[in-house]
Amino acid sequence: MSFHSPEAFWLILLLIGAIGWSLWSRQKKQASLLFSQVHLFSHVGATMRVRLMFLPIALKGLALIFAIIALARPQQSDTRVKKNVEGIDIMIALDISDSMLIEDMKPLNRLEAAKQTIKSFVAKRSSDRIGVVIFAGESFTLVPLTLDYPLLLGRMDEVTTAQQAHIKDGTAIGIALANASGKLKESTAKSRVVIFMTDGENNSGTIDPETALEIAKGYGLKIYSIGVGRDGPTRIPVMQRDVFGNKVKTYQPFESTVNEDLLVRMAKETGGRYFRASKEDSLQGVFNDIDQLEKTKIDVNKYTRYTELFKTYLLMAMITYLVALLLERTWLRRTP
Question: Are the C-beta atoms of residues 162 and 204 closer than 8 Å to each other?
Answer without folding.
Answer: no
